[in-house]
Design goal:
three-stranded antiparallel β-sheet, 2 domains, Uridine Diphospho-n-acetylenolpyruvylglucosamine Reductase, domain 3, 208 residues, 7 helices, alpha+beta, four-stranded antiparallel β-sheet, 28% helix, 9 strands, Enolase-like, domain 1
Amino acid sequence: MRDASLPSWFEGLKQAARTIGGEQVQNRATLCGNICNASPAADSVPNLLALDAVVELASLGGRRLVPIGSFILGNRRTARRPDELVTALLIAEPSRPARSRFLKLGARAYLVISIVMVAALLEATADGKVAAARVAVGACSAAAQRLFALERVLVGRPLDGRLGGAASAEHLEGLRPIDDIRATAAYRRDAALTLVRRLLGELGSQGA
């Protein structure tokens, strides 16, 4: 969370870390524990999807690698076998300059379960356009989801404050939010679109 040596494209994950529990939890918890818990509202997961993280699993039988999007199967369900431990999260360095960001909606700023959260990582071309994009939404499905259709639309667009205008409700059709004590499904869907647009606008405003 406070590691200045981490590259700029880890900023979204660092922003999420600030919102997970209090300092006692932050100092005891682990990213691997967060993904193994596999809560739909796990704040690290959309960021790890945006970072295209790979989960390393080890057992007496050997080692295997599973993309984070294939590791979390649903609410409290993962691809980890009973004889395996998660031993690492592997994140490749982007091939171009990149920046990331995270936004969370909750009943208050800290110590709260997310109603909706969004994360994104954008890679930039030399002339200030989107070269690649990964956008993910959490707490709106049994597991956090990438918005692949939106990612394709973003490629080639100028990196400026208007970038959020590229997102539409159709890009979020794959989400499956639920009604619960924190929010209705309709509210979550509307809030997710608002947060995606806001996040992309903030990322675009950072400049190339």
